[in-house]
């Protein structure tokens, strides 16, 4: 018996007919059977696990190399009507990945730890959400916005019932331009390096940069000629830590700097700030090194290798934190997410998301951090990958770029 077949009936259809759905449970291992395994899946059914085994589902899992264990604890899951429903089940794991644990209360029950998963007909986790960096990832450097091919690929995902969103250091109020005013393409996503998170056009989480830390940055860069702290305050741009003399001397390098302020305003939250540095990469690195030393309460990352900018973020905050929030709010598993990135500000999220993807033009560090690899941003490789995800969802399989060639 194969995982996809049971008496001629596709496993996905059989499961839908006989089980409520499949649920993922992240857990703290206290049982010897779970010590080595991660990505723990609980096959939930109204019947007890021995009934599931009698129907052959456990054997189907084992036929494709899954590890299956009977679950001796009773699990509860909050139903749509707000009532906890009782389930028995089995634990199914794929691969030796990370540590696992089973969160229980004093009675051995697990509460609020279950996440719904979808499986393909072949028993593989299906991708529900794709997130992409923008500059030199979804959008080739030099282009004003995503290509029509990329926008068509995004809509192919949306039409397949999947989600797509940016995972970017860019501000959300610039996305209408970057997506050629196609609002459907960016209603959900992680912006400003994880500090603003949106679902269906609604802000679900925000993480402002501390004002005190930003003022320390402004004071620090004031002592470095040819540097300025730039604030993008919901489209209103201004600079801090720059003298009138420098404005005239370095205007062409700084570009559009807006107004100049002496201090960081404290009457409103600030999410987007970066430091512009005039000079070569060596000087850029020197400035960042000093900032890390003098302002340890903030983080300083390079958005991409093509610009002399340093992004400022709250300490310990990154795109990975934003994705963590987004996945939690959507109620999906982390392994149902694909993320595309190419540069330093993508490193945390490329390491955090199991199905991370780097383009051929990615920095060496980003390429090493990613699990999967595709072609060049200049060739619209991300758009091609999105089309593969949409097609795989229809066919009940996995996208070609996520299939090991070895």
List keywords for this structure.
six-stranded antiparallel sheet; disordered N terminus; 12 helices; Hypothetical Protein, Haloacid Dehalogenase-like Hydrolase, Chain: A, domain 2; 24% strand
Can you describe what's shown?
It is a single chain. The protein is of the alpha+beta class. It folds into three domains: 113 residues, no CATH class; 164 residues, HAD superfamily/HAD-like (Rossmann fold, 3-Layer(aba) Sandwich), CATH 3.40.50.1000; 104 residues, Hypothetical Protein, Haloacid Dehalogenase-like Hydrolase, Chain: A, domain 2. The chain is 28% helix and 24% strand. It contains twelve helices and 22 strands. Strands 3, 4, 5, 6, 7 and 8 form a six-stranded antiparallel sheet that branches. The chain has a six-stranded mixed sheet with strand order 16-15-14-17-19-18, with helices on both faces. Helix 10 links the parallel strand 20 and strand 21. Helix 4 runs parallel beside helix 12. The chain is globular. It starts with a strand and ends in an 11-residue tail after the last helix. The N terminus is likely disordered.
């Amino acid at each position: 018996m194969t995982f996809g077949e049971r008496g001629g009936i596709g496993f996905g259809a059989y499961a839908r007919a006989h089980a409520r759905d499949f649920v993922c449970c992240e857990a703290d291992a206290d049982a010897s059977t779970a010590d080595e395994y991660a990505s723990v899946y609980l096959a939930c059914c109204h019947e007890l696990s021995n009934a599931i085994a009698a129907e052959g589902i456990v054997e189907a899992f084992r036929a494709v190399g899954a590890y299956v264990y009977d679950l001796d604890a009773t699990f509860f899951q909050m139903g749509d009507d707000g009532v906890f429903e009782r389930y028995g089940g089995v634990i199914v794991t794929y691969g030796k990945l990370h540590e696992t644990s089973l969160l229980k209360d004093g009675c051995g029950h697990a509460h609020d730890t279950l996440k719904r998963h979808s499986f393909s007909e072949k028993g593989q986790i299906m991708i529900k959400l794709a997130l992409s960096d923008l500059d030199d990832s979804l959008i080739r450097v030099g282009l004003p916005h995503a290509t029509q091919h990329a926008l068509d690929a995004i809509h192919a995902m949306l039409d397949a019932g999947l989600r797509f969103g940016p995972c970017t250091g860019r501000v959300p109020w610039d996305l209408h331009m970057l997506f050629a005013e196609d609002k459907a393409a960016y209603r959900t996503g992680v912006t400003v390096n994880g500090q603003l998170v949106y679902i269906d056009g609604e802000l679900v989480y925000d993480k402002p940069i501390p004002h005190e830390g930003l003022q320390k940055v402004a004071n620090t860069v004031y002592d470095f000629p040819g540097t300025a702290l730039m604030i993008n305050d919901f489209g209103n741009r201004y600079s801090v830590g720059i003298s009138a003399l420098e404005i005239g001397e370095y205007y062409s390098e700084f570009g559009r700097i807006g107004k100049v302020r002496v201090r960081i305003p404290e009457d409103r939250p600030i999410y987007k700030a970066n430091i512009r540095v005039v000079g070569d990469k060596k000087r850029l690195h020197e400035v960042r090194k000093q900032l890390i030393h003098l302002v340890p309460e903030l983080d300083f990352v390079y958005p991409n290798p093509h610009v002399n900018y340093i992004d400022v973020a709250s300490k310990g905050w990154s795109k990975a934190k934003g994705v963590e929030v987004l996945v939690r709010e959507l109620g999906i598993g982390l392994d149902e997410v694909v993320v595309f990135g190419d540069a330093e500000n993508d490193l945390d999220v490329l390491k955090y998301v199991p199905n991370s993807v780097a383009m051929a033009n990615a920095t060496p560090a980003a390429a090493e951090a990613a699990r999967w690899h595709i072609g060049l941003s200049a060739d619209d490789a991300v758009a091609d990958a999105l089309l593969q995800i949409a097609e795989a969802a229809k066919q009940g399989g996995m996208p070609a770029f996520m299939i090991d060639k070895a």
